[in-house]
Amino acid sequence: MRRLDRIEKKEEDLGAALRDLRKDLKEEIDLILEDISALSTRITGSSGQVVKHDEEQVSKTHQASCDCGDIVSQYENLMLAFKREKSENTMQRKEFREMKKQHDLEIRNVSESFINMDSRLNNAEKTYAECKKDINHARSYFNDGLMHLNESFTNRSLNTLQEISRITSDTAKLKTSYEILKNITGNLIPKSCDSVVKSGEYTIYPDAFPQGVKVYCYVDSTNKGWIVIQRRKDGSVDFNRTWADYKAGFGDLSGEFWLGNDHVYQLTKDTPRQLRIDMEMFNGTKRYALYSEFKISSESEKYKLHLSGYTGDAGDCLLMSNGIHNGRSFSTFDRDNDRWDDGCCACRWVG
Length: 351
Hints:
With 351 residues, the protein is α+β, with helices and mostly antiparallel strands. It is built from six helices and nine strands; from the N terminus they run H-H-H-E-E-E-E-H-E-E-H-E-E-E-H. The strands form three sheets. Strands 1-2-3 form a three-stranded antiparallel beta sheet, with no helix packed on it.
């Protein structure tokens, strides 16, 4: 911009100088023309005067011609200088126009950038205002929702506490009612054969079988009830069975049967039991063996037999001094657990 200012000032100064030069040249030319006009008048006015003053006029004309040549030479020099200045001025004007064009382009680009930035700033301000409005709306909505949630949570908590208190109270009442009902119905729902008064098939509900298990109860002459785990009387059922059969039980409760090792284990594992064995010979003679403590182990321990406290008149074949049966594992022909290394008792003495 400073360079442009200098160029413009130089151009103004040069123009002023040229105007002054033109004015001076015009004045000189006018004077010369006046002299020439006066000279021509005098020449045409009197020939005598022409002769008389010939030398004088020639001298003046020569002097005027000399003066005019100097002026013309000076004018030509000035014109050459003017042309040079004009050429330089033209080039400077061209440079000025190019610079102005570039300057205008830069200004236009800057202006467009400014307009774009201003537009973007306006859009950003508008977006910010909208976002701020949305945030305020969301904050208000969140605060309202949080307030409602707190109120709902508080109400639900109170309702839950009241419900828990009511359930606790009802549970205590139900527990009391259950104990009362249990005492009332204890005699109606037998847990064992002790409460029955007549031999037959019954469903008992011991602790090991809360869903109930069907058994045959035998009531002896002293009115004591026994759970029958095995009965053999006529050979109608084959007792030469697999391990799985003896585990689950087989036969018919009204005839010959085996209650099942799993049932016997569950019935004897927690409650002290007695074992009574009643036998009758073909001639009608009856014998019995009674053991005051009886239980068997679980299947993982191969249903080991545990006995003690023998009384009776049949003879002790289970607790005899050699301990051949007490503490021994249960055996079948497909699961040989006896201590006979040379054979299989269940295979030899089937059933």
